């Protein structure tokens, strides 16, 4: 599991601050959240099918919230980004938040000098999903050639999509974010790096704010229920299990 968690630090400095969004508590009849798809396109499509099936008898608007980390580890990162950049199912809105792996892919595309460090962090499977044999290129090509291949093979619109993603959604007393929050710090003062990368002390202490945080980032074989937090990263690329958390009124459930 330690190998799966990977490095516990941010690889590079932040870009400009990402958007934080707010919806009213009663804006949606049902909310469905999932996290850390990590290139598992088949499971993502199946999760959407089950969400549509579950919501069929619920009148009113519905929301799907994606909590980040759409690339790396699994086999189909490119297909995942293509799917998420298109329209959601009829009757749904879909809000896609940014995870640390997503931000790092966008940084690599813009500044490929960090390629080797990024590959040590993750990334090989993502490049393969775009038809890039990075192992061969590292042995036979120079940096300029590798950069050109990456920019030719990865669609610019996928990178623009990742760069456009907000980083937090607050809906009444519930906060959706990729990794967690810095305990005791006002939500408006949270750094993007914390929201995408934090583990401790958040996992043990919770937000220490009057909110419930729904997050991913830290994988487990089952959802985790900590102090004022619910972690829903069930390591789909390793376990085959993609967890969907549901909120219907005041009831919280799992698919």
Q: In terms of structural class, how would the helical and strand content be classed?
A: alpha/beta
Strand content: 15-25%
CATH superfamily of the largest domain: Metallo-dependent phosphatases
**Oligomer class:** single chain
Q: What is the end-to-end distance?
A: 24 Å
Number of helices: 12
* SSE order, one letter for each helix or strand: HEEHEHEHHHHHHEEHHEEEHEE
Largest sheet: 6 strands, mixed
Q: In total, how many beta strands?
A: 11
Proper CATH architecture of the largest domain: 4-Layer Sandwich
| CATH C-level category of the largest domain | Alpha Beta
Q: Which blocks of ≥5 consecutive residues have pLDDT under 50?
A: 1-14
Number of domains: 2
Overall mean pLDDT score?
93
Q: What does the radius of gyration come to?
A: 18 Å
| Strand arrangement, major sheet | 1-5-6-7-9-8
Helix amount: 25-40%
Organism: Rhizobium aethiopicum
Pfam family, one: Metallophos
InterPro entries: Ap4A_hydrolase (IPR050126), Calcineurin-like_PHP (IPR004843), Metallo-depent_PP-like (IPR029052)
GO molecular function: bis(5'-nucleosyl)-tetraphosphatase (symmetrical) activity; phosphatase activity
Characterization of this structure:
The structure is a single chain. The chain is of the alpha/beta class and 255 residues long. The protein folds into 2 domains: 167 residues, Purple Acid Phosphatase, chain A, domain 2; 56 residues, no CATH class. A 6-stranded mixed sheet has the order 1-5-6-7-9-8. It has a 5-stranded mixed sheet with strand order 4-3-2-10-11, with no helix packed on it. A hairpin with a 2-residue loop joins strand 8 and strand 9. Helix 4 crosses helix 9. The radius of gyration is 18 Å and the shape is globular. It starts with a helix and ends with a strand. 38% of the residues are buried. This is Serine/threonine protein phosphatase 1.
